Fold this sequence. Notes:
By secondary structure, the chain is α+β, with helices and mostly antiparallel strands. 47% of the residues lie in helices and 18% in strands. This is HAMP domain-containing protein.
Amino acid sequence: MLCWSGYPEFGEAVRMPFRKGSNQSIYVPLRTKFIVLFCLLITVPFLVIGTISYKKYTAGVERSTVELSNQVVSQININLEHYIKELDRLTLTPLYDEDMMQILRKHSGSGSANTYLTTDETLKMNLFISSLAFDRGEIESILVFTNDGGIFSNLDQSVRKRWDRSMADWMEAVEQEDGGLAILPPHAAAYYTEAKQGIISVARVIREPYTNDMLGIVKVDLTARGFGSIVSTVRSSGSGLLQITGKNQVMLYSGPDGLPDSSESYITASAHSSYTGLKVTSLIPRTQLREDARELTNSTLIVSIVALMAAYAAAILLSNRLIKPIAHLQSKMRQVKRGLFLERATVTTSDEIGQLTEGFNTMIGEIDRLVKEVYETRLKEREAELLALQSQIHPHFLYNTLEMVNMLALQGNTRELSGVVTSLGKLLRYTVGHQEQMVYVLDEVRFVEAYLRIQGMRLGDKLQAVIHIDSSFDYCVVPKLILQPLIENVIEHAMGQDTLQLALTASVEEEDLVLSVKDDGLGITGERMQELEEQLYVNKSRPATETEQGGFGRIQKGFALRNVHQRLRLLYGEPYGLTLDHTAERGVTVSLRLPMNWEAMNNAGPAGDRQEET
């Protein structure tokens, strides 16, 4: 069945340029009228009101924004200093607890002799540390690192019991402060059982008050709420970006709005703390300044909408008579574009638009006539060509089979002859008795099995054929008589002195059905392969003189592969068809590619079943 969608040649033919005609009278295009109308009613009022509004508010809004930003940054800086002082006092607390100092002195050595942490030590230290972290949700954990590698923490389960230098790259910065408070930028904390990234901490070295010897390090890990809680108490409006940086401009905190956009212009306000060494910076996009002028913008928008509605009303009243016929003609053109060539436009005026409508109707009528004349002719020609190609297959197979029957009759093998005649009758009923062009894969396989039984009686052990086609392909619809010519081609051209192995398989490649016939016969020479490819893909016909003597005369040979390939191309187009593969050491693989089609046939069962019912 051939399907056609649209008429591409004629679709291209009607795409021709149109040119405006000239007129002696003064002509003002409709487009120009609309442009003038919109400029007067919309553009001028919008520009006047917008200019006054922005000149009045831009300078004042920017000035007030700068003042407010400086106040916010200063307040945040003060709060931040207070917060750091609290953490400073918290890290000094171990110096005032004698039990804790005794435990640190016991583990002050750098060797491994005193590395064992007793239960009593762990209980006392963890209890003391937990009291420091009580009711402080912004603290992730408080940890005490001993010199001999032990760790005490309020998080007993999620913190390791031991540490080494590979877990403490941050210790160098703490030791450089020589007992002072160190604010550590985001870093990796490998001493947790599950390593954490981006931890912000404060830490200091714990020293012996009398000898100034290092006893350990106390470290406070902060959560993201640490700095965020300080900022949120001041920045209630939530506008702009806020950043807190430490030494060497290392980023400690960035607000929830993220990092600044390099393409955006910002108003900047900052404050630096000499006590903490931290810098607080506020960035406010200049685009936010326009928000203060929203009230005037809304007034401008109302005026613009009123002017726009007035312009549309005037345009509709003045051009309704002109637009309606054009819109009607346009709708008919869309119908024609979809292939409905019976559509005709109604002529409602006697002016140029009416003349254009009459010309459109005449043009569509002529196109409809040409489509019926040319495309129906081409369709019939292609259907005739398909039937002619298919009809070339039937005599070719029939002549070869009758020659084999004649040979068996001369030999006097009546039982074998009866089997051949019975199989031949089934084959003839399949090829001649039913004229459908599409069958199931199961039908084709049964046909091939019957054909191989006939050839097996003639060739004996010289032919060994196997069929490996999964039952899931049985009801896939394929063109009729596409497998038997491939089997016959193998027997005619690949048979040598040795036993011929032949395999018929089916597979799926890229949602296409691929049927393959593989043999280990004589193969194909390079010259013959080139000739076959020219016949298949270049549409080069073979000379008609290439024949051999048959039972009733001279039969043309070598057209089986070409006919099957041309049938698939006529039915499905590219890239479907037949391909040859002779890269193996022996034999050739012939493959057919065609689309997967599970469309139900007119009759419920396979062709073999239908034959038996008749």
